[in-house]
Design a protein that fits this description.
The protein is an alpha/beta fold and about 475 residues long. About 55% of the residues lie in helices and about 10% in strands.
Length: about 475
């Protein structure tokens, strides 16, 4: 019996599409699913695409050429551990288990160490691009043993999306949990970008009384310029979609409660733990938390009088549209600068040797945040030898050119009652990061008064404490 090059466990839509992608690229692929009927239906429809279904786990493992490569496309957390546990009796020395889910990077590190004790390999690989990306080419973020990467490279390179220059959107990122860490930060940035777009949508809807299809027209213009991206591309049909169950547009009938699956929250926590300003991502997570409290928000809205909102004249829109475009561009640059700052700090603490130009490059295609801005970042990092984005001349010039627009839009939101947690956080981060003196001296004075926490001075060396008791 002919052996498969690779196996895949977990045939939800992402798993099915990834398996088809691998098989289409010339790698015979065995598949297994806990619910056999799902596998049977999948093979009945796509079995001719170089795919082999196995109803028994032992048979599935034996159908793969040794040393085996088995991809897991199952829900992150305990399900991954349970699948690994069920596989162990059937694996042999040198086999490799590849986790293609959104696993938390400490779990990846733990699993790699645990399987190494059994002379087995564990490899984490972030996969971004959703269902279509899995089928037609995702952005892949692999991390683990470099020797295992070399073994997997032909397959991962073949199935990956292409960047703006036609190169595969995959690169080796580093040992143990590096790949899943980069995927986590990718998702955190995704949270921030989506929330800033939502804030722009609300501003145009609330302040100018624009219908969703009119906002789609504006977003379409943005998509033709420097904000060109997958997210703006899909925002256009979303805003134009009519409600097939009633009048008007579907977007107006969608409940304003946003879900989350953990990666954004993990990123926000990482920023706190590693003492890195990623306020845009943190506020994006917080915005989803606020949205989830729909019933309570509705109760409070009945208790607080909302200031009468005067719709701005359409004539003013011509002036605001380019300002809003610049504000979004500035906000997104700041969000990326924060995300890459977190990657830089994690690399130092985890002993990962990240190439930030390469990370930006592999996000150019396949993934959810693929956008023209990533080509800008890729080239900027490359030109500046991977210096922090804040310090790169081209990025500095772009922020200098667009920061006043960010101020205008955030100010407009504050004056008209449009919440702008992410655009506001981006502005606050910019104002804080680009000035030499902040208000933290006042904080230190308070801390020393109530807790004798001491302070340093700007005019002499040493640590100081003032006896504030004379003021009691």
């Amino acid at each position: 019996m002919e052996k498969s090059h690779i196996g895949l466990i977990g045939l939800a839509v992402m798993g099915q599409n990834l398996a088809r992608n691998i098989a289409r690229n010339g790698f015979r692929t065995s598949v297994y699913n806990r619910t056999t009927s799902v596998m049977d239906e999948f093979i009945a429809e796509h079995g001719s695409e170089n795919l082999v279904g196995q109803a028994d786990l032992a048979d599935f493992v034996q159908s793969i050429a040794a040393p085996r490569k088995i991809i897991l496309m199952v829900k992150a957390g305990k399900p991954v551990d349970l699948v690994i546990e069920s596989l162990l009796p059937h694996l042999e020395s040198g086999d490799t288990v590849i986790d293609g889910g959104n696993s938390h990077y400490p779990d990846t590190i733990r699993r790699e160490a645990s399987l190494a004790e059994k002379d087995l390999n564990f490899f984490g690989c972030g996969v971004s691009g959703g269902e279509e990306g899995a089928l037609h080419g995702p952005s892949l973020m692999p991390g683990g043993s470099k020797a295992i990467w070399k073994d997997l490279e032909p397959i991962l390179t073949a199935i990956a999306a292409k960047d703006f220059n036609g190169n595969p959107c995959v690169t080796y990122l580093g040992n143990d949990g590096a790949g899943h860490y980069v995927k986590m930060v990718h998702n955190g940035i995704e949270y921030g970008v989506m929330q800033m777009m939502a804030e722009a949508y609300q501003l145009l809807s609330q302040n100018f009384g624009l219908a969703p299809n009119e906002i789609a027209d504006i977003f379409e213009k943005y998509h033709e310029g420097k904000l060109q991206s997958f997210l703006f591309e899909i925002a256009i049909p979303i805003l134009r979609e009519p409600d097939d169950l009633g009048d008007g547009f579907l977007i107006d009938k969608i409940l304003d409660k946003a879900g989350q699956k953990g990666t954004g929250r993990w990123t926000a926590i990482e920023g706190m733990q590693r003492a890195v300003d990623i306020s845009v991502i943190q506020q994006a997570v917080n915005a989803r938390i606020v949205s989830s409290r729909k019933n309570y928000r509705t109760q409070l809205s009945e208790k607080y009088e909302v200031r009468s909102q005067k719709i701005m004249p359409k004539e003013a829109l011509d002036d605001i549209v380019p300002v809003l475009e610049d504000a979004l561009y500035a906000g997104m640059l700041i969000s990326y600068a924060q995300g890459f700052d977190l990657l830089r700090q994690a690399a130092e603490e985890q002993n990962w040797d990240f190439d930030y130009s390469e990370i930006a490059r592999i996000w150019e295609g396949g993934c959810i945040i693929r956008a023209q801005i990533l080509k800008t970042l890729h080239e900027a990092f490359q030109k500046a030898n991977n210096a922090p984005l804040w310090e790169i001349e081209d990025i500095k010039n772009d922020l200098q050119d667009t920061r006043d627009s960010l101020r205008v839009i955030v100010g407009m939101g504050a004056n008209t009652g449009v919440p702008m947690p992410c655009l506001g956080a981006a502005l606050g981060s910019f104002e804080g990061m680009t000035r030499s003196r902040t208000s933290a001296n006042f904080i230190q004075g308070l801390r020393d008064f109530f807790g004798a926490h001491t302070y340093e001075r700007i005019d002499r060396e040493g640590v100081f404490h003032t006896d504030w008791s004379k003021h009691w």
